[in-house]
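Entry 14. Ran structure prediction on the chain below.
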Amino acid sequence: MKARLPSPRFAWCLLIVAATLGLALAGAHWRARQATDVGERLVVEGHYRRAIRTLSRAVALAPDEARAHFYLGIAYSRIGMPEGAMAHLREAVRLAPREPRYREALDRATRDTAQDVCGDRCAESH
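Output, structure tokens:
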């Protein structure tokens, strides 16, 4: 039995679908970068809760955006939510292991969390 080639019409349909999906993904990544830029500015300005809303949207759009996770972790840290801070800072380090400020922020958050948990006993034992 001879294999049939797809019709030109079918090939065009596939091309249009692929192009549409590509544009949608690129658009989502662009919106995530925009949200990350806004979230970074909000963190710098001290608007941590607004930053968390904005950066959470960025992470939802592009879960592989290390910078969004980094600033989201910083924002969580600044409002006293160490679990959220640690989770997002770990993800930032996982996604961009060569970025020293991500590792430094994670190390600092780890120390701060340990200090909060055991208080002066940790400082005395080290």
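The domain at 15-125 is CATH 1.25.40.10 (Serine Threonine Protein Phosphatase 5, Tetratricopeptide repeat). Will compare against last week's run tomorrow.
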